[in-house]
């Protein structure tokens, strides 16, 4: 992507006006780390949204509200009860990239290796989009297709709301890389709700080894109502292996990707169970 000019609007409405006037000749700029992944070399005007007061994390009712321009390094350092977003952020690229790359940039134009959509699908996060007024989308709706389409007409993502994990909720994530800071070969995230030793509800999502991040309904269905034990996790993970178009990445065969995904799903489920049990005992 080639930038010819920068605008630095002073408010959210002004940023939206700039973007609407520019149309296809303008683009939102947050951390700017994705520019070299974008193939289009038509010069555009960048509308910098990093000084609009959208960098923060704060508890808000049953959620943690994360401003869209909050850098990943800030999310990685944040700690609070019933919060687990730091886990995946510390595994994204290098610290230098995490210092400037924002949560909004990661989920507004989703690249195949993006890790945060996987976690937000598992956690059932909510995305807040400004179009003159704010509208909330749940993760299933927001990530149903490439979110970049939502932002063609001057709309701006302003925040992400991550549900605070309740008691008996366990979170687990696994990101497999060949070398530190490499793109993911497979990313899995899950949230389990336990009732005693049984699984009452489950959200399991995957990314990187499939064309676009998505939930894994066949895995979720195989978990609900069952005991949270390894044999059940193994059986559920096999469902994902059969059902999805896993594809080889980073030099791996498709068959290897599929196997890696199954093993990673089991690991994520084991982690989520330990997480929930440690919190309830
Ligand atoms: C070498 C390298 C390795 C990486 N590895 C990984 C990895 O393993 N896993 C991973 O998840 N990420 C990884 N990333 C980060 C990821 O690929 C993106 O570069 C990053 O998430 C973009 O964030 P940004 O703030 O820099 O966004 P920008 O580059 O500024 O913007 C990205 C896109 O989102 C749009 N946008 C940004 N903010 C908003 C908003 N608030 N509202 C509407 N549209 C908006 C922009 O217009 C642009 O189209 C890596 C990046 C690099 C450079």
Q: Portion of residues in helices?
A: 25-40%
Main beta sheet strand tally, sense and closure: 5 strands, antiparallel
Rg measurement, Å:
19 Å
Strand order of the largest sheet: 4-5-8-6-7
- Number of structurally distinct domains: 3
Compressed to H and E, one letter per element, the order equals EHEEEEHHHHHEEHEEEEEHHH
Give the number of DSSP strands.
12
CATH level 1 class label of the largest domain: Alpha Beta
Cα end-to-end separation: 52 Å
Structural class by sheet pairing and helices: alpha+beta
CATH architecture of the largest domain: 2-Layer Sandwich
Written account of the structure:
The protein is α+β, with helices and mostly antiparallel strands and 281 residues long. The protein has 3 domains: 2-48, Uridine Diphospho-n-acetylenolpyruvylglucosamine Reductase, domain 2, CATH 3.30.43.10; 57-163, 2-Layer Sandwich (Uridine Diphospho-n-acetylenolpyruvylglucosamine Reductase, domain 3); 171-280, CO dehydrogenase flavoprotein, C-terminal domain (Enolase-like, domain 1, 2-Layer Sandwich), CATH 3.30.390. It has 10 helices and 12 strands. The strands form 3 sheets. It has a 5-stranded antiparallel beta sheet with strand order 4-5-8-6-7. Strands 9-10-11-12 form a 4-stranded antiparallel beta sheet, with helices on both faces. It has a 3-stranded parallel beta sheet with strand order 1-3-2, covered by helices on one side. A hairpin with a 2-residue loop joins strand 10 (186-195) and strand 11. The chain is globular. The protein starts with a strand and ends with a helix. 43% of the residues are buried. Flavin-adenine dinucleotide binds at residues 27-35, 49, 68, 92-93, 97, 101-102, 104-106, 108-109, 111, 113-116, 151, 156-157, 183-184. Flavin-adenine dinucleotide is lined by residues 27-35, 49, 68, 92-93, 97, 101-102, 104-106, 108-109, 111, 113-116, 151, 156-157, 183-184.
């Amino acid at each position: 992507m080639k930038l010819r000019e920068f605008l630095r609007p002073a408010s959210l409405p002004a940023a939206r006006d700039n973007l609407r006037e520019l149309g296809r000749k303008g683009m939102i700029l947050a951390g700017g780390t994705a520019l070299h992944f974008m193939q289009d070399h038509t010069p555009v005007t960048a509308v910098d949204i990093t000084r609009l007061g959208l960098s923060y994390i704060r508890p808000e009712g049953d959620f943690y509200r994360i401003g869209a321009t909050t850098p990943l390094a800030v999310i990685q350092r944040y700690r609070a009860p019933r919060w687990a977003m730091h886990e995946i952020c510390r595994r994204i690229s290098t610290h230098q990239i995490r210092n400037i790359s924002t949560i909004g940039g990661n989920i507004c134009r989703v690249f195949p290796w993006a890790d945060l959509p996987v976690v937000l699908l598992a956690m059932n996060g909510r995305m807040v989009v400004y179009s003159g007024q704010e509208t909330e989308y749940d993760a299933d709706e927001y990530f149903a297709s490439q979110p970049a389409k939502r932002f063609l007409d001057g709309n701006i993502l302003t925040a992400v709301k991550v549900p605070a994990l309740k008691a008996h909720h366990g979170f687990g994530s696994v990101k497999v890389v060949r070398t530190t800071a490499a793109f993911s070969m497979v990313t899995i995230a899950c949230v389990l709700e336990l009732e005693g030793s049984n699984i009452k509800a489950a959200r399991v999502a995957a990314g990187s080894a499939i064309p676009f991040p998505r939930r894994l309904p066949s895995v979720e269905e195989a978990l609900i109502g069952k005991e949270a034990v390894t044999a059940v996790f193994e059986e559920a993970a096999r469902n994902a292996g059969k059902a999805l178009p896993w594809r080889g990445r980073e030099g791996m065969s498709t068959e290897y990707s599929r196997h890696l995904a199954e093993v990673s799903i089991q690991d994520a489920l084991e982690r989520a169970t330990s997480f929930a049990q440690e919190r309830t005992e």
